[in-house]
Write a structure and sequence with these properties.
With 224 residues, the protein is mainly beta. 7% of the residues lie in helices and 31% in strands.
Length: 224
């Protein structure tokens, strides 16, 4: 049986490319996005939502639709070497390419269009949103649940900025976004090349950095 799903809105995100996006929501608190609802949705559609701290956001992994899917994938948490079933992972390469993120709801503006501002996001710019639901702690918080191969939060990198790095124009929020994003170690799980210079586009900047062991060094920050 086939069903038709229509997007209800679009994400405006500081992440302009897949490389550098946190692999799970909540890992980069400084990553704020705006979910702009389609004009067919008025303020009535979000009435009462402001009383909740978090929302579930269902979306489409639009940037990988043409890449298809596989029943077995290599989770980064396992070093990219061990295969797991796609339904045991959060890989974007899924049969229906549907994603789910739990985001902190910061505020709502009820003009036209209606906009929801959320933080801790792991969403690519222009991601189509297909549903929004409130997070209900007493039924959805299971702190003692088994977490499989992803039971604990991954260790973050220590991030420093090169002394002559031209980042004086950055706001504190932009600086935090860049540092927190790189701290998640965006490299492919199998890659460990200390001399390699990585390039990441975030917000309106192009950021270059290197990683040696558990230490990341930000080299340059320039307008993209």
């Amino acid at each position: 049986m086939q069903y038709t799903i229509t997007s209800i809105g679009t994400v405006h995100s500081p992440y302009k490319q897949k490389f550098g996006i946190a692999r799970q929501p909540g890992l980069v608190p400084a990553a704020e996005v705006c979910i702009e609802l389609n004009n067919s949705f008025t303020a009535d559609s979000v009435r009462g939502l402001e009383a909740f701290d978090y929302v579930w956001v269902s979306f489409i992994f639009h940037d990988v639709l043409e890449e298809g899917w596989s029943p077995l994938v290599r989770p980064p948490r396992l070093g990219g070497k061990q295969k797991m079933g796609v339904f045991a992972t959060r890989s974007p390469h899924r049969p229906n390419h549907i994603g789910l993120s739990l985001l902190k709801l910061e505020r709502i503006t009820s003009g036209k269009p209606v906009r929801l501002y959320c933080s801790g996001a792991d969403l690519l710019d222009n991601t189509p949103v297909i549903d929004i639901k409130p997070y209900i702690p007493f039924v959805e918080a299971k702190p003692d649940a088994a977490g499989g191969f992803a039971a604990v939060k991954p260790e973050e990198l220590s991030v420093t900025w090169q002394a002559d790095c031209s980042h004086t124009a950055l706001t504190s929020a932009e600086r935090n976004l860049i540092s927190q994003s790189i701290a998640q170690d965006p490299r492919p799980a199998y890659q460990d090349i200390p001399e390699r210079i990585y390039v990441m586009q975030v917000a309106q900047y192009e950021v270059t950095f290197q990683i040696n062991g558990r230490q990341a060094l930000i080299l340059t920050v320039t307008p993209a």
